[in-house]
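Morning. Coffee machine broken again, so started the prediction first thing and wrote up yesterday's gels while waiting. Chain of 169 residues, entered below exactly as on the submission form.
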Amino acid sequence: MTHNESILLMNALTYEEGHPRRTRHILSVYAMAQLIGTREGCTENERSVLLAASILHDIPIKRCKQLYGDASQQNQQKEAPAMVHSMLKEAGYDSSCHDRILDLVLHHHCYEQASRDPLLQILVEADLLINLKEESLPEQNENTLRSIFRTATGQTLLTAFLQSSPAHH
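Came back before lunch.
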């Protein structure tokens, strides 16, 4: 883990003030993105961008709940830019990568766009895999879910995770 990455992760976790679900989600998506990114051959620079985005992908949720009473995608899109830039700057990330990281954060629920961007694809898959383990998935969504996954690593993990889901027992 690079120095900047450890600062960013520490800042994100302390920002969440120990909120159990969000803290666990940050750590889980971060680990999953690291695994998929490594196995799919990300370069060191790509890995740095991917992992920063995985740490920050849901960072606006807390602020949105405080400001608006909900964390809708629209509210998160509104709050994400200032938060992401501020946290990246505070952690010492070079400003040349801020917009790329923000783009991944803003689009990690845009499944139809993921296939056009390898890093977005990995972030989407990491988030969906962790969501699958955190929430129950209605059985009818399995085919839709499978259609989103494009990396070999993600597809293998999805198959394994689906086998252990309650719908398959």
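The mean pLDDT is 92. Going to sketch it on the whiteboard this afternoon.
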